[in-house]
Amino acid sequence: xxxxxxxxxxxxxxxxxxxxxxxxxxxxGSKESGSGSGSGGSKSITIGIKFDQPGLGQKTPDGxxxxxVDVATYVAKELGYSEDQIEWKEAKSADRETMLQxxxxxxxxxxxxxxxxxxxxxxxxxxxxxxxxxxxxxADDDSIKSPEDLNNKKLxxxxxxxxxxxxxxxxxxxxxxQEYPTYSACLSGLQNKAIDAxxxxxxxxxxxxxxxxxxxxxKLGGFKMTNENYGIGVKEGSDLKAKINTALEKMVSDGxxxxxxxxxxxxxxxxxxxxxxxxxxxx
Length: 283
Ligand code: GLU
Hints:
By secondary structure, the chain is of the alpha/beta class. The protein has helices at residues 8-22, 67-78, 96-102, 116-119, 162-171, 183-191, 202-209, 240-253, 256-265; strands at 4-5, 31-34, 41-49, 52-53, 57-60, 63-65, 86-90, 107-108, 122-131, 133-138, 154-158, 176-180, 197-201, 218-220, 228-235. Strand 11 (154-158), helix 5 (162-171) and strand 12 form a beta-alpha-beta unit. It is globular, with a radius of gyration of 19 Å. Mean pLDDT is 89; it is low at 8-30 and 32-41. Bound molecules: glutamic acid. Glutamic acid binds at residues 93, 110-113, 158, 161-163, 200-201, 228.
């Protein structure tokens, strides 16, 4: 797994970007920060990712890692930003639209499914990955063999996620749904038996199940209950959308997408779908 290091340079840029953000951000997707001495300037880009989803977006003591991090880093490079010029921000599921609308981040690559409701508030480039909603249960639990078995179970998901909404609206309306702020919080509940199952995208669940400290403790249902088309979120009307789409197309055609998939999903043995075509949203 390739870690994106937190360098002294990016820490400086982080401080500069904070100053820039405090003064309001422009719509071009970049933040130009002067050095203060008038000699030249440095620029940075602020990207929202998940911090607690191994294989996708994870903050570790050594930096940031995961498929979303690799996609975002590639896109940033195509937009003219080196790794050192990226400021990573945590974008929890419930905060993503607001963060984009407020201009807290330039774009978000955080297991962010494209759907009509969100599309009214923000714009999406992509999709760049197709995942499916699934469940994670304790390895010794044989009581959940189909999505219907989730009814009357204590089911955990995350506030503001499509996973929680799908459970309530169609998948298992009679489940006792508990909404936590993050999936890692759900995972602790699953471990200590406060909940019976955790539901979200199979890509995320595979990453958790493969963690060294969880080996053999959990299993995926393998239900493929929905299509989750991951997009890169930008502020509504931003010209970044077209540029990001061009970058994503290039990432697939030059083989970098496949490399990122192998590096990040290989360890979890996650069988991903092939690269989606830009604009092809599977219902
Ligand atoms: N992909 C789903 C969503 O965007 C679930 C994962 C998440 O919460 O980030 O809501």
